Automatic annotation (TrEMBL):
Residues making up the signal peptide according to the UniProt record: none
Taxon lineage: Bacteria, Pseudomonadati, Pseudomonadota, Gammaproteobacteria, Moraxellales
Domain Macro stretches: 1-174
Name assigned to this protein: Macro domain-containing protein
Gene3D superfamilies (alphabetical): Leucine Aminopeptidase, subunit E, domain 1
Amino acid sequence: MKKVSLICGDITSLSVDALVNSANRSLLGGSGLDYIVHKKAGSVMRNACIELNKRKGGCETGHAEVTVAGELPMKFIIHAVGPRWFDGTRNEPQLLCDVYSNVLIKAESIKVKSISFPNISTGVYGFPKQLAAEIAIGTVLSNLDYLKEIEHVFFVCKEIDNYKIYKELLLNIQDNQKMQITI
């Protein structure tokens, strides 16, 4: 049975196979979680990001790239480039859905059993938190049954307001799922 867990805390301290990083298009570090991941992961991960930037020009919005985790306690970092919120008319919801889907595809390709997701695009990118949570949970849970490798998904909220939104959404669907949801 697949497992989904909701946690309020530090995503960089979880012992999972892959941490999803809210990255910018350059993959060279930014603010928020991206800054923290780059700082804690160290030079090995940073050098992998530099190489991706040189080779591919970074990563397009809605897509994801994989690197080693460096000094963090997981095997991989999946750098996910979510959309900036402008006014909702620039395909932002679809791009956010795409980034979650592309992360799952990358995770499957590297045979990840456990993965932790942050609240992609809800920080400095300004995506509305309720809509972002609905897209994140909807995209991940609708794909989870079809994924062969991923067994445990963690939604990790740093901020209590995001945690409350995720909790309410997960409680409303908890009885309708063929998976174990832990809040």
